[in-house]
């Protein structure tokens, strides 16, 4: 196990489209486990491969709260694809990202989704009726695989409120 460096806003790797994973190898499973360890260490509930510098379609998610004594419940998802369910309603809540530290801003997203992905054993999986933080994490992490960040989805008012913080963060990358 190893802790990985989390790339931050302004890093080009966060803006690239990630490539499809053809085969789940032991090396990729190890990478996913290192991503989970990195995510737990940073007290996040999701992490996508571009955030640790790899443009491949891999995300890890755990919405349990191990810090509060909950049992861990990790998901490793290769090539995740989600779709909104017919009775889904839009939900607006504050969202953050380990690559954009200390910024929390309202984002509206579909409230209920189905996700399909390949698990760490290389098996196809489908989870229906994902809601709450889980539905949000699936969408947020999937966005990372297409080079999108949550700050792309905020209102113009929130954008101008946070513009200088974001510019400063991007500048630090040089
Ligand atoms: Ni993120």
How many distinct beta strands?
7
Bound molecules: nickel (II) ion
The fraction of residues assigned to DSSP E strands is 25-35%
Mean pLDDT: 96
- Largest beta-sheet characterization: 5 strands, antiparallel
Structural features, described:
About 25% of the residues lie in helices and about 30% in strands. It has one domain (about 10-174): Alpha-Beta Complex (Peptide Deformylase). With about 170 residues, it is α+β, with helices and mostly antiparallel strands. It is built from 3 helices and 7 strands. The mean pLDDT is about 95. Strand 4 and strand 5 (about 100-110) form a beta hairpin. The strands form 2 sheets. It has a 5-stranded antiparallel beta sheet. It has a two-stranded antiparallel sheet with strand order 4-5. It has helices at about 25-40, 130-145, 155-170, and strands spanning about 45-50, 60, 75-85, 90-95, 100-110, 115-120, 125-130. Nickel (II) ion binds near residues 97, 98, 99 and 144.
List the helices and strands and how they pair.
Elements: H1 26-41, E1 46-48, E2 58-61, E3 75-84, E4 90-97, E5 100-110, E6 113-118, E7 124-130, H2 132-145, H3 156-172
Bound molecules: nickel (II) ion.
Residues 97-99, 140, 144 line the site of nickel (II) ion.
Concise summary:
With 174 residues, the protein is an alpha+beta fold. The protein has helices at 26-41, 132-145, 156-172; strands at residues 46-48, 58-61, 75-84, 90-97, 100-110, 113-118, 124-130. It has a single domain, classed as Peptide Deformylase.
């Amino acid at each position: 196990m190893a802790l990985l460096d989390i790339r931050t806003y302004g890093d080009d790797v966060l803006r690239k489209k990630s490539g499809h994973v053809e085969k789940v190898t032991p090396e990729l499973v190890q990478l996913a486990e290192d991503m989970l360890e990195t995510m737990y260490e940073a007290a996040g509930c999701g992490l996508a491969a571009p955030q640790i510098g790899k443009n491949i379609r891999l995300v890890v998610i755990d919405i349990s709260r191990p810090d509060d004594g909950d049992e861990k419940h990790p998901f490793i998802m290769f090539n995740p694809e989600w779709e909104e369910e017919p009775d889904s309603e839009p939900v607006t809540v504050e969202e953050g990202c380990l690559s954009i530290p200390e910024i929390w801003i309202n984002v509206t997203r579909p409230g209920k989704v189905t996700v399909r992905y390949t698990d760490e054993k290389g098996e196809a999986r489908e989870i229906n009726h994902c809601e709450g933080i889980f539905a949000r994490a699936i969408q947020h992490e999937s966005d990372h695989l297409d080079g999108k960040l949550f700050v792309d989805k905020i209102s113009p008012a929130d954008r101008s409120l946070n513009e200088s913080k974001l510019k400063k963060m991007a500048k630090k990358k040089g």
